Amino acid sequence: MSGWKARIGYLSPSVFETPSDWDLILPKGFTIVASGLNVQAHTETEFNKAIDALGAGLGIFAAEECDAILMGGITLGTQRGYAAEQEIVANLSRQVGLPVSTAMSATVEAFKHLGIGTTVIATAYKESINRAVKKYYEDGGIKVLAIKGLEVSKPVDQVKLPDYASYKVARELLRLHPAVDSVLIQGRWRSVAYVQELEDDTGKPAVSSTAASLWWAMKALGIKAPIEGYGKLLGG
């Protein structure tokens, strides 16, 4: 059976594209079972359409015998806020009978696991979305000193960026805020490949929202599978 250790349901707001960052970090015996909600632009209308479809969208993962479910992206957290998202996710988890989290909620848990109090955030998003991302993490107990994006307005445009784009934005944020505890790379753009280099170059923990999602899934399922070369969070 594919995914003999863990079958992780992954609900993308838009689509799930391969190859992706997941190919770099997914442990042996893990499978991603993906579905999407067809968000085509970073607009309130598109986000709310996806939120309305969440309940029906998660049902497929129980039928596919998944062990845990991750909701990718930022849709629920930015549109409803941290507290409401926690309540909605808890209700969805009871509904499907499986552990459920979002990429953003998993990242908050990862920060707390690492003992991180402050961060700077690198994204590909436009400023209006970044304000909502910043508020989410601050409501989750993480002090955000700065957030910077590349003004991308459609999900597909994130994957058109150079692989090193996330490193460049994150490195500049760390240069401007040398006293910060960490850096977060948020979103669908390539975020995992350069996490280790960021940590080696700066001495600061670098967290990718994709890596945090995998960390949460392993934690929820009680599986310990250290993944070397992609940062402190997955390495130990």
The best one-word shape is globular
Multimerization status? single chain
Which blocks of ≥5 consecutive residues have pLDDT under 50?
A: none
Number of helices: 12
What is the distance, rounded to the nearest whole angstrom, between the alpha carbons of the first and last residues? 28 Å
Which percent band covers the strand fraction? Answer: 15-25%
Please provide a written account of the structure.
This protein is α/β, with parallel strands linked by helices and 236 residues long. It has helices at residues 22-25, 44-52, 54-63, 75-80, 82-96, 103-114, 127-139, 155-158, 165-176, 195-202, 209-221, 232-235; strands at residues 6-12, 30-36, 68-71, 100-102, 118-122, 143-148, 182-185, 206-208. Helices cover 47% and strands 17% of the residues. A four-stranded parallel beta sheet has the order 2-1-3-4, with helices on both faces. The chain is globular. The two termini are 28 Å apart. The model has no long low-confidence stretch (mean pLDDT 90).
From the structure above, extract its key features.
236 residues; alpha/beta; four-stranded parallel β-sheet; 12 helices; globular
Question: How would you summarize this macromolecular structure in one to three sentences?
Answer:
The chain is of the alpha/beta class and 236 residues long.
